[in-house]
Structures are given as C-alpha cells and as structure tokens.
Structure prediction request, 404 residues.
Amino acid sequence: MSMEIKKEIYDFFAKFVYDKTGIFYPEKDYYRLDSRITTLMGHFQCETPDELFNLYVTKRNKDMEVVLIDLCTNNETYFFRDNKPFDALTKTIIPQKVAQNGYVNLWSAASSTGQEVLSIVMGLLENNPGFDLSKVKITATDISQRALKKANSFTYSSLDVQRGLPAMLLVKYFDQLPDGQWQFKSEFSKHLRYETLNLLTDNFKPNFYDVICCRNVLIYQNKENKQMIMQKLFDSIRSDGFLLMGSGESLIGTDITLTQSSVDGAMFFVKENQTWKKAA
Amino acid sequence: MKFLIVDDSNAIALMVSEMLKEMGYTSDRAVDGNDAVKKLEADNSFDFILLDWNMPNMSGIEFLKYNYENHLTETPIIMMTTENKPENIREALMFGASEYIMKPFTKDIIESKISMLNQFKKVA
Ligand SMILES: C[S@@+](CC[C@H](N)C(=O)[O-])C[C@H]1O[C@@H](n2cnc3c(N)ncnc32)[C@H](O)[C@@H]1O
Ligand SMILES: [Mg+2]
Prediction:
C-alpha cells in the first residue's frame, strides 16, 4: 500500500509518543512510525493518515493513548535473560536480605510480560528449598497495557516457554491449558500482580526498595530523561539496596553515585550505606 | 559443534540441519532410533543429539530407554517433537533427555536450549 504521511502527522505522533513515554523518534527514524500509523488506522477504522490525525487531534481519549503506547513499546523479554543476575539475586542477595531484615521489597520496573518476575520466583524456590515467597514483596510494573494484560494472565505460548526456560522448570511450575498454552501455577503466582507505572511521568516510592530491576528500558530514553529517571530510582532504593540494569547498561551520562559491585559474577549497582562507608 | 539429528521426516531433518548450518554447526542424520544406535556405535563424538519422538522401528522414547539401560552415549539429548504434554516432557527427562523442544519451534529456540546446556557443561 502506498500511503502519503505528511510531516505534520509524523511530528504529531513522534511528539505524542515522546511526551507520554520518553521514547524518541528522531526525524530520520520517522519511517519506523509508518507501520504503527497503519496499524492505528486499522484499529480506529480510518481510511487515511489524515483521518487518523484528525481523530487524535479532535477526539482524543484514553484508549487512543493506550493503543499507541502498546504499539510503540518493545516488549521483548524472556526467561532468565542473561542468567547470572538471577543466580546472584536468588542465591545470594535476596536470601541474605531476608535473613537480615525478615523480608525484601523488590521492584521489577519494566516487567513487560512478566518473564523477569517469574524467573526470580522460580530461582528463589529452586535455590532455597522451602523458601517462603511471602517474604519477598514484589512490585511489578510496566507502561504497556498489552504487556500487563498478558503478565497478569500468567499465560504463555509454547514459543515463550521455550525461550530461556529449562524444560524441567516448565513442567514443575506451569500447567498446560487445554489450548496448549502454559500458565504459571497459581500457588506460585497468588502474591503477584502487575500494575501500570510510567517511569517517565509517575512518582516512585521513596526509600523503599531493597532491589530494583530496571532492565532494557532506559536504553530508549535520551540523556535528560535517563538522568531524571535514574535520580528517582536512586531515591527509591534503600541504603544497601541493589539496582540491576540490563547487560551493557550503565550509569554513564548520569551523575548518580551508586557503587558498581559484582555478585556471583553479575554486575549490580549498590547504594552504599554512608556510615558503613566511613567506618570501612 | 556437531549434531546428530534423529528424525524420520526428511523435511524436518533438512530444515533443522539448515538451521544448524546457519548457526555455524555441522550435523549428521539418523532416520530412526535403530539408525541412531548404529551411528553412535560407529562414532560417539557428537556434541548434541536432537531426537524426534514418533519414528518407526525405534521411537525417540524407546531410544532414550535403550540408552538409559545400555549407556550408549553421554552426549546431551534434546527431544524435538510435536508431543507436548507435560507427561511426555517428564518421561523424556526421566529417561535422560537434557532438554525438550516442542514443535513448531524457531531457530532462536534451538539456540536458547543449546546455550542453556552449554552453561551447565561449564559449571560441571
Ligand atoms: C524490552 S522490555 C524489557 C523487559 C524486561 N525488563 C527484560 O529486561 O527482559 C522494555 C519494557 O519497558 C516498557 N517501557 C517502555 N517505556 C516505559 C516507560 N516510560 N515507563 C514504564 N515502562 C516502559 C515497555 O512497555 C517494555 O515492556
Ligand atoms: Mg517423526
């Protein structure tokens, strides 16, 4: 289909997405909006980009925002992504914190369809026989309603459950549904709920989390927004708390002072306790 | 790395060997469990075995049970089959399969399973 999209329309959608999510489409990448605009046209039954543009300008509602955000976020994730951080979290960091404080507040800050959270749950149970899951208070959030809906269904396709997930864990922690999909067993998911949170525009709980996973999401942010989100994350971590980012992600470009620390071969950022630092 | 593909379907064996080739691996092929036994008796230097379930003469699960009793090979075996019930997976794992791929699958799933098994090898 040949379709003429005016620059004004690209500008509008690029700005819309940027304002809502921080995800930035520079002019040279405007072509990457084409398929998204086409999908939106289908969704809202518009014949032309102009008609869609008109609809967004004149009759904007929540649904139009939700659909556009779903289209512009990349929800790519899989079980035990990068592996080592999950070992470190579930063998060392979380059990130690539970032993010290009796519980852990953990936040998966861009949880997408939930594989990251479920990997932590399975890791805890595998590495600490008889582990009491109620001691780990998990907050799991994302901006994409499509991702959240799937996460909250705890249901995955046969392809999803073969990416990063050992078959042994599949049969242990999932039930097969009549349609062939796989659902995380409710005995392990009953404490879990995924919620909406926009890292760019929402406030975070101050001084609350012992562990924050914020992986493979800030890569889509520009320098200013990354700095701003990192500052909010910093304020949200408790003293001696851990921040886990994606492999290859760093604090570079921000002025955040977290200490790099390797745990079981995985890289974390730690908010060092000031008094402890002085004593050492 | 060298794979032994055990599958009675020419089409699937060809597709899998092409996928492996794209990943930079070589492969040999056996048409059923019996053939796999013969191939492994002659050459036990494979890095992985990809094993179909439904085959004439000796099925995949029969091959696993045979190997379980006769210690034919220590090479990690990955089931690759349309059988996708939890009972199937449990049975295969119980008789020594290291991993399980459900058809239909994609190349990145083979890659994911292989890298998982290679990690365990490094630990051991
Ligand atoms: C590539 S996934 C990463 C999932 C998981 N953390 C991982 O590493 O496998 C990125 C997720 O970030 C979410 N996201 C993007 N921008 C966001 C924002 N401003 N606030 C919250 N979530 C956002 C997307 O919806 C998507 O689900
Ligand atoms: Mg067959």
